[in-house]
Design a protein that fits this description.
Layout lengths: L13 H12 L3 H8 L6 H4 L14 E9 L2 E8 L5 H12 L5 E5 L3 E9 L4 H10 L1 H10 L2 H5 L3 E10 L6 E9 L6 H19 L2 E8 L6 E8 L1 H4 L2 H16 L1 H21 L4 H11 L10 E5 L5 E8 L8 H4 L1 H10 L4 H24 L4 H15 L4 H14 L4 H10 L1
Antiparallel strand pairs: 1-2, 3-8, 4-6, 4-7, 5-6, 8-10, 9-10
């Protein structure tokens, strides 16, 4: 059986690591080239992705190891510029293995399209009128995307909210749309446009905005994991993680940084698969606050055995149909490395990675502090900037870390003396 429980992966050369990943994910030679050769994204492809293209820009792609998700060994591709993120995720996943890895679930691919209606003097009456006509609204919406409906997607339900605002009460209609394996922005926006005239007709109001909401409260991915106290350093570490979590749960200033650390793992996976990292950032942070208080995205507790248990719930805006996932060559390879076939599978990996990333940060804060491991990796970056390579790179890094003096100037001095 294939396993990503790999000891010393970071010690291999870049080409050796790529070869190991290619074997695990059954990559072809052409697919391997797309992620190992600079300039694999040609200008003619880039020119069709965004406007005013002048060239391309490359970031490092790595893989997080050791993940078991719902009993399956998973390699997680990550595209990111910051040191320590991939190492932290891999280490957290390794510590989760004795407890069985990560267990995940998903509520479904439901996106919300909002139709803002103003100028209604009797908004609560209008709300009921709209709900009386739910079937007609759904029919109008679904006429716009028969293909989506044919694969069991499409508009499924209607909600109506009265929103008090600076310009008076707004009647806001929510179309709940199953977007299938697409992220779904285009589909829900098109449906919102289609139903707007009918809503104006039955309410007498004026429709203004017709657009999706990134607060995808019905598109939730969940993950849990048990970290045995033996695997993570004892019950004192368990208590330390819970204390760190309690701080994030209570204080929005701490929660912002804790949640940013979660997105440290999620965003690189989103980028690696060609998805919209701005959208999922907005979704996750909004979800942490829309019930009235900005708080932690995760929950950490101690079970009866004294082990640490973690859980996360987040809106996982992602897709495998359309957008960068199908256009960007390296994103296609990223999806293949991950081994997912549906948006639901991708969403659940996102949740597992977020939980792992948070555990890594919480454990570091509860033990040696976040800087110990991070600064060693930071020192490698600094030494590289100073021109160190090969064995000299390791010597310069070791010296700077020992001295606790990490700077380009010190790295250059060490290069001239070692």
């Amino acid at each position: 059986m294939k396993t990503n429980n790999y000891s010393g992966f970071h010690k291999l050369s870049v080409s050796q690591r790529a070869a190991e990943v290619a074997e695990f994910a059954n990559l072809t030679g052409e697919e391997l080239r797309l992620i190992t050769e600079p300039g694999a994204l040609h200008n003619d492809v880039a020119d069709k992705v965004i406007e005013n293209v002048i060239g391309t820009y490359q970031l490092p792609m790595g893989v997080a190891m050791n993940f078991i998700i719902n009993g399956k060994e998973v390699l997680v591709p990550m595209v990111v510029e910051e040191a320590s993120i991939i190492a932290a995720a891999s280490n957290a996943a390794k510590m989760a293995r004795p407890g069985g890895g990560f267990t995940t679930s998903y509520t479904g691919n439901i996106m919300i399209a909002q139709i803002q209606t103003i100028g209604i003097s009797n908004p609560y009456f209008a709300k009921q009128v709209i709900l009386h006509h739910k079937d007609e609204i759904l029919s109008i919406a679904n006429e716009k995307d028969p293909v989506l409906v044919g694969i069991t997607g499409g508009a499924k339900d209607v909600e109506v909210r009265i929103v008090e605002s600076l310009i008076g009460p707004m009647v806001v209609v929510h179309l709940l749309v199953d977007t299938g394996d697409a992220m779904g922005a285009n589909a829900v926006n098109t449906m919102a446009e289609a139903v707007a005239p009918f809503i104006e007709k039955i309410t007498g109001g004026t429709v203004k905005l017709r657009i999706l909401s990134n607060l995808a409260a019905y598109r939730l991915a969940r993950a849990t994991a048990t970290f045995t106290k033996e695997a993570i350093g004892g019950e004192d570490v368990v208590d330390g993680v819970i204390a760190a979590y309690a701080f994030a749960e209570a204080d929005p200033f701490r929660a912002a940084t804790s949640n940013k650390g979660i997105m440290n793992g999620i965003d690189p996976l989103i980028v690696a698969t060609g998805n919209d990292w701005r959208g999922i950032e907005a979704a996750c942070h909004a979800y942490c606050s829309y019930k009235g208080k900005y708080t932690s995205m995760t929950r950490w507790e101690k079970n009866a055995n004294g082990d640490l248990t973690g859980s996360i719930e987040l809106p996982a805006l992602c897709g495998l149909v359309g957008g960068g996932t199908k256009i960007l060559p390296a994103a296609k390879v990223g999806v293949k490395i991950l081994g997912v076939q549906t948006a639901a599978e991708l969403a659940q990996v996102i949740a597992a990675v977020g939980l792992a990333q948070n555990f890594a940060a919480m454990r570091a804060l509860a033990t040696d502090g976040i800087q110990k491991g991070h600064m060693k990796l930071h020192a490698r970056n600094i030494a590289t900037v100073a021109g160190a390579t090969g064995e000299m790179l390791d010597k310069v890094v070791a010296a700077m870390v020992a001295e606790k003096n990490i700077s380009v100037e010190r790295a250059k001095e060490l290069l001239s003396t070692l």
